[in-house]
């Protein structure tokens, strides 16, 4: 689960990490009020969406008068902002963060993430912070510094100093930088984060270190023990189909292909996607309808799959273990009748009462392609998209 910048900055403040003075606004009048509350005569109006690259896409506006705050807020609110990170769909701007402007001398990059291959939290830093970090990582990897944290010792002083020296910090910045890093590490562990990125971490004219931007992702599997964080989730930022699926208790992840997958069990769903790829196709989604799928769940799942205009065929791959195949067939038939599907549906059924289930599909009069196994199912689904 991703947090908005303003939510991430609230967390940073709880760990005594300096952030610019700022206030959230949800209307133009709000934004003007926020600017009036923040000392100074220049502000930054920042679109709150779950994607970076806002600066280059016009989502971060530096303004020098209240009239400009008003203009920036009305230009951004309600707009779908497309950045290189969320293209082509973009995300809707419903909230703005109005902040003081800082006199920036340097922009650094700093992040922490879980490196799965190392099974460790890794700190990444670069003197080349700001808006082009992906390019630096690709073309100048030597400018990316890294420290791997031992889970027992945590982030230790010499690692903080290594990074500080690598970043070319001045002597008087080393101690505050180490303190900031330790705060971030604590925040990361306490809240079960999978990513914490500050880009840029700036050095101001007075030599202070301030987190100017912040992106936080919380490990979904740990949300049950972070109720307050879980409540901050903004579903408007997720794929609309994923939000509907979540509400229906379905495990759905949208992908870029054209074969809609409806499968029971996460392992079988992964195997199904692999098979589609193996036979030259591309899955449009991951979808686990769960072990106890009912006719209603199957209908909902069909609707979600069909809401994706890219889907050219549907592959239903169900193993009737807990559920009987005849009940599943009944669900599929009812769903296809109710939803009125115009594209080919390939069904692979296996398990208890499979013969009865297959017979029911044949007798239904619906144009359902019955597959004789996993490979056949994948091949037929791929072929159906190529006609
Ligand atoms: P994004 O990463 O989505 O583009 P950022 O919050 O990093 O958004 O902002 C982009 C750039 O805008 C920053 O690198 C910085 O140069 C400038 N900026 C952002 N907030 C401020 C601020 N409070 N004061 C001065 N400049 C800012
Ligand atoms: Mg940024």
From TrEMBL:
Enzymatic class: ligase
Annotated signal peptide: none
Binding-site residues for Mg(2+), renumbered to this chain: 199, 213
Binding locations of substrate: 264, 321-323
Amino-acid positions noted as binding ATP in the UniProt annotation, renumbered to this chain: 46, 53-55, 99, 102, 107
Biochemical pathway: Carbohydrate metabolism; tricarboxylic acid cycle; succinate from succinyl-CoA (ligase route): step 1/1
Cofactors that this protein relies on: Mg(2+)
Span of domain ATP-grasp: 9-227
InterPro entries with a match to the protein in the record: ATP-grasp (IPR011761), ATP-grasp_succ-CoA_synth-type (IPR013650), ATP_grasp_subdomain_1 (IPR013815), Succ-CoA_synthase_bsu_CS (IPR017866), SUCC_ACL_C (IPR005811), Succ_CoA_ligase-like_bsu (IPR005809), Succinyl-CoA_synth-like (IPR016102)
Subunit structure: Heterotetramer of two alpha and two beta subunits.
Record's function text: Succinyl-CoA synthetase functions in the citric acid cycle (TCA), coupling the hydrolysis of succinyl-CoA to the synthesis of either ATP or GTP and thus represents the only step of substrate-level phosphorylation in the TCA. The beta subunit provides nucleotide specificity of the enzyme and binds the substrate succinate, while the binding sites for coenzyme A and phosphate are found in the alpha subunit.
NCBIfam families recorded: PRK00696.1 (NF001913), sucCoAbeta (TIGR01016)
Protein name, entry field: Succinate--CoA ligase [ADP-forming] subunit beta
Phylogenetic classification of the source organism: Bacteria, Pseudomonadati, Pseudomonadota, Betaproteobacteria, Nitrosomonadales
């Amino acid at each position: 689960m991703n947090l908005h910048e303003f939510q991430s900055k609230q967390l940073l403040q709880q760990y005594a990490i300096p952030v610019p003075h700022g206030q959230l606004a949800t209307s133009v009048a709000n934004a003007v009020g926020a600017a009036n509350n923040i000392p100074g005569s220049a502000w930054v109006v920042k679109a709150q969406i779950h994607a970076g690259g806002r600066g280059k896409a016009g989502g971060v506006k530096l303004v020098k008068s209240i009239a400009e705050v008003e203009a920036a807020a009305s230009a951004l609110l309600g707009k779908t902002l497309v950045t290189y990170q969320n293209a082509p769909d973009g995300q809707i701007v419903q909230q703005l963060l109005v902040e003081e402007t800082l006199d920036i001398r340097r922009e650094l990059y700093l992040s922490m993430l879980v490196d799965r291959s190392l099974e460790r939290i890794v700190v990444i830093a670069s003197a080349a912070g700001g808006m082009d970090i992906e390019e630096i990582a690709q073309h100048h990897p030597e400018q990316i510094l890294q420290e791997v944290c031992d889970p027992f010792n945590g982030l230790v002083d010499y690692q903080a100093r290594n990074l500080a020296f690598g970043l070319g910090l001045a002597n008087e910045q080393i101690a505050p930088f180490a303190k900031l890093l330790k705060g971030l590490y604590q925040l990361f562990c306490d809240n079960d984060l999978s990513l914490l990125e500050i880009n840029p971490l700036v050095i101001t004219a007075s030599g202070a270190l301030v987190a100017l931007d912040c992106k936080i992702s919380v490990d979904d599997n740990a949300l049950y023990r972070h109720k307050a964080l879980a409540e901050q989730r903004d579903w408007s930022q997720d794929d609309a189909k994923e939000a509907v699926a979540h509400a229906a208790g379905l495990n759905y992840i949208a992908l870029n292909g054209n074969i809609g997958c409806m499968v029971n069990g996460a392992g079988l769903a992964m195997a199904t996607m692999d098979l589609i790829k193996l036979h030259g196709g591309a899955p449009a989604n991951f979808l686990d309808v769960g072990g106890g799928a009912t006719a209603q769940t199957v209908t909902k799942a069909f609707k979600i799959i069909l809401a994706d205009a890219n889907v050219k065929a549907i592959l239903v791959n169900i193993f009737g273990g807990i559920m009987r195949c005849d009940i599943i067939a009944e669900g599929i038939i009812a769903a296809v009748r109710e939803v009125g599907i115009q594209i080919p549906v390939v069904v692979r059924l296996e398990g208890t009462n499979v013969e009865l289930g297959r017979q029911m599909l044949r007798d239904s009069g619906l144009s359902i392609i019955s597959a004789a196994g996993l490979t056949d199912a994948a091949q037929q689904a791929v072929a159906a998209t190529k006609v």
